[in-house]
Design brief:
- With 250 residues, the chain is mainly alpha-helical.
- 80% of the residues lie in helices and 0% in strands.
- It is built from ten helices and no strands.
């Protein structure tokens, strides 16, 4: 269990360092360090991610570093799609979900490796609302289906489509992640109830507390480390982990 605690701390530190990425580690940690079954790990991941992202969101909201209009156009459709993704998950096996999870990890790694800065034409932002809605729907499906918060997609989307500065995009992203994770966790409780599987509440509480503590550590440390190096190192780690997931599930 000590390794699980270290894993929870690592999740929080990663989230604090990068503003995203921590949630993509939660499912593998729960499966390979704690020994949870796939579907239960995905459900518990959503509960943990919801708690960590919400506590990260609160300071941003208090300091007015949240773009509420983006939460409306991105977050609300995302909640609907998350519910649908969690509903669809009950029709497939846990192993299939993990294979999809591995593919998304590779996608996340690719985005972190590239990480190109784009100029935003603010005069066209009024025409990008439909793109925000579509992005929100896509992220929501991913969150509900495999338990990933999707910060690695949400933050670039908010910067490019809403023209938000990065500090505002990160705070807004945490709000959207907490909303999507909450509705996904709510639906998974129903799905697991039909399977007569119980949520491990003490585990969720422990991971959440350690993860929240780690996120504060990560924020402090992140001020002294170049973000580009961090993202590329984390991207390489995701590639290795995704290969491991595919290898163990063949």
């Amino acid at each position: 269990m000590v390794w699980a605690w270290i894993g929870a701390l690592f999740i929080g530190i990663t989230l604090g360092l990068l503003g995203s990425g921590g949630s993509i580690l939660t499912v593998p940690m729960l499966i390979y360090l704690v020994g949870e079954p796939e579907k239960l790990a995905i459900a518990e991941s959503l509960g943990i991610v919801c708690a960590i992202s919400f506590f990260g969101f609160l300071p941003s909201a208090i300091n007015r570093k949240v773009h509420w209009r983006s939460i409306l156009y991105f977050g609300v459709p995302g909640m609907v799609a998350t519910y649908g993704g969690a509903f669809a998950a009950k029709f497939v096996s846990g192993k299939f979900q993990l294979m999809v999870f591995a593919v998304i990890m590779l996608l996340a790694a690719g985005m972190m490796f590239l990480n190109k800065r784009h100029a935003v034409n603010k005069s066209s932002l009024q025409h990008e609302k439909w793109k925000l809605i579509l992005e929100g729907l896509a992220v929501g499906v991913i969150t509900g289906f495999v338990g990933i918060g999707g910060g690695f997609i949400i933050v670039p989307a908010l910067v490019l489509l809403s023209g938000l500065p990065i500090h505002l995009a990160v705070g807004t992203s945490l709000g959207i992640i907490s909303m999507n994770s909450f509705i996904g966790f709510f639906k998974y409780m129903e799905v697991l109830g039909e399977m007569d599987v119980s949520i491990n509440w003490p585990l969720i509480a422990l991971f959440s507390v350690i993860g929240i503590s780690g996120s504060f550590i990560g924020k402090r440390v992140g001020d002294y480390i170049p973000q580009q190096r961090l993202k590329k190192a984390f991207a390489a780690f995701l590639v290795v982990m995704s290969i491991g997931i595919v290898w163990t599930n063949f």
